Amino acid sequence: MAAMMLTACGDFLEEVSQDEFEPKTASSFQELMNGEGYMMNPVDPITYMMDDDVQGCKGSLWDDVLSARQAIFEWQPDYWQVENDCQSISMFIKNSYMNTYKTIAACNIIIENLPGSDGPQTDKDITMAEAKTMRAFYYWRLVNTYALPYNDKQTNPENNLGVPLVTASEVKDEGVPRASVAEVYAQIISDIEDACALFGNNTSSRGIYRINYTSAHLLASRIYLFTEQWDKVIEHATKAMATAPALVNLKSYNIDNTLTPTNGVISKKFGETIFICGMKAMSGDYSLTGTPFGVSKELGNLYETMDRRMNTYIMPSGYDYYPYRILKNCNDEHEYTWRTAELYLNRAEAYMNLYFQGNQEAGQKAIDDLNTLRSNRYRVYTNMELTTPEELQQLLRDERRRELCFEGFRFFDLKRYGMPRIEHTLIGESGAAFLYVLEERDPSYCVPLPDNALEHNESLVQNPLANRRVGVQQ
Q1: What are the pLDDT digits (tens) for 260-299?
Q2: Do the Cβ atoms of 26 and 118 come closer than 8 Å?
Q3: Largest interatomic CA distance in the chain
Q4: How far apart are CA 95 and CA 10, in angstroms?
């Protein structure tokens, strides 16, 4: 077996010699996957501060960490520098971009060298499927954070810069340039299709901390949603739904402690959880509670009177200046859960788009999926009837926002919806309010590449940067 060196472009990984670690068996590769292939650091500690589900409020404290958060909230082009200068922010968060590539490198080692290892082929197939699924996920998050959306109607994904595409365990010292968005997605799709094929009909679960048949098909439905391949979305979502846990009926579900919940939605205790990963970005440095940033009233107003997601996902705080608390995230849990609810939303959106193309039956199927989801979310619920494609689209977008808020989707969804204008009002330490605007198709919809990534990879090209924003006092 060739020596496996944990190296990557521009010091993404420190070199590990063959004497330190050289897997020879399928079980040792699975250990590598468990220890290095599943990222336990924040995958995306950035974009949840950039969407329209957050607003400024009169915080109870200001410190250097919150000043760094302010730069993200204001969509400042130099926020990485502000963050790097903040000594109180952990290196796990500062290095989220490079840490993602370190984890990709572990997946690359497994994908390259597992076929020649000793052990049962069935075990090797499972480990390979896990590595390819996670590599697809990491690249999906990277390309949606740092590049234009695949479905952008004014540009071509073949011409738009994506992210460096590293698929080998060893790369050249001069670094890897950015592949196109189309090239990155081609790799993502190749990986997730390979993973689904490797799982085959093996629907057994190895626990919610490992990828399995259901989670692989869920990710496939998400990927195809972002590339607008509607039949593929339906195919993979339907396969995942056949083995996914049932939707949780929130009529009989209660958060155990609204101050420090342990059974929130982003939790191993929530019954819809299919897969859970990452170190939560909503805690510690990135908590909203007691800070100058909170849940937007616009989001809160989307929940109707009978909607149990109010007081399960978010809850009124009782204070005008700080309208809501987030209940989704638990003190001892992770960054993301992949949940059954997403499958209904993905498939409904695919059906809705077929309805736009004139398929009446698909429109009804979209409404059926939404009614199934919503009937498990309301105290009292009456099924909706099919209306126009335009009304169905708005209903579905609102439902997706209500259901998936603070789970890492909203900013990416806004990008694929056309990158609309967003306003953030910041209330400073003096109590004065300042308006900041992310304009339609603003350059900051593509997050600037981190300074340390540019320093370590001379082949990288930075995204176009917006001018530094100046707030307008209200």
Answers
A1: 888 889 888 999 999 998 776 544 334 576 788 889 999 9
A2: yes
A3: 67
A4: 14
Cα–Cα separations (whole angstroms), residue 329 to 48, 283, 336, 405? 13, 8, 9, 11
Kindly state the percentage of the chain with pLDDT values over 70: 90
Among residues 353, 326, 340, the alpha carbon closest in space to that of 259 is found at: 326
The first and second tokens of residue 320, run together, are 């005008």
Contacts of residue 120, defined as CB under 8 A and 6 or more positions apart, other chains included, come to 26
**Residue 363 phi/psi, 5° resolution?**
-60, -40
Angle between helices 96-113 and 121-146 (to 10 degrees): 150
CB atoms closer than 10 angstroms to residue 458: 12
pLDDT > 90 in the chain, percent: 70
Q: For residues 415 and 148, what is the distance between their CA atoms, to the nearest angstrom?
A: 8
Query: How many CB atoms sit inside 10 A of residue 3's CB?
Result: 12
- Whole-number Å distance between alpha carbons of 23 and 20: 10
The span from the CA of 20 to the CA of 327, in Å, is 43
C-alpha separations of 409 from 25, 54, 339 in Å: 37, 13, 13
State which amino acid sits at residue 433: A
Check pLDDT > 60 for residue 8. Answer: no
Q: Residue 88 — very low, low, confident or very high, per pLDDT cuts 50/70/90?
A: low
Instruction: Indicate the helix (H) or strand (E) that contains 193.
Output: helix 181-199
